[in-house]
Please model this.
Amino acid sequence: MPLYRDQAIVLRTQKLGEADRIATLLTRANGKVRAVAKGVRRTSSRFGARLEPFSHVDLQLATGRTLDVVTQAESISAYGEGIVNDYARYTAGTVLLETADRLVVEEKEPATQQHLLLAGALRVLSTGEREPALVLDSFLLRSLAISGYAPSFDDCARCGEPGPHRAFNPAAGGMVCTTCRPPAPAMPSLATVTHLAALLTGDWPTALQADPRTRRESTGLIAAFFTYHQENQLRSLPHLDLTPNSHLTG
Model:
């Protein structure tokens, strides 16, 4: 079987037989890959712990007929160590992984931008450098933008009339002018629109200035926008708990 090497983030795993596991990976060069990790559920496995969700790994894989096979695994960053014991980080992290899995649809199609975005978000989440809610909201907006669903927070998303505008409509693609807005649209505050734009562009100095009310309103609009364009809510979203300092072990 032909061999290839790639960096990957483990999105999810499932048991296969008595000792094996199938790992769904988001790789840097080859997009989404499903691969068998043989014997990883045995205590003697050489790389079982390296193939857990949230792990960033350097892999050698053998191309298979239906599933590829992991032949080598070296850890790059074990992001799970800083995520799984903090409930707010863990629930945000599971949404990150599910989002990447959902948005990268085709297997073996390059998705380098999504890979880099996810790796960066997991790194920040694992260190506690920023609040989980901010990391997640920014990731959702930016991953949607990479997938072709970039929201407009300035010009009218429907007709292009220069903003700022007051109404937000997920179906139209963001903020809309008075002519284009539907009946009873969401009417976010100017501070919320500014915060959303900052999250989309990665303008952290601006995003960090938002007060709790602005952040809550932004989170609701992002969830509505994501759900509309993906048709179904993420399975992990109802379990989200972004309360500061909440812990699995506490």
